[in-house]
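Entry type: protein chain
Record version: 2
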Amino acid sequence: MNDPFAFSRLLPAPPRQDATEPELPHARHVPDPGGEPDRSAEDAAPARTG
């Protein structure tokens, strides 16, 4: 069973790159307050300074 896509089949289908590409740069320039990863980053920033 040398199927290169055997492992990828076990994982959930990833979102299309067309939808993720614009989100990545946009989130970097303008972090959304509702974004969980952005929130954790903001919480970590004051924790470092404090």
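Comment: The mean pLDDT is 58.
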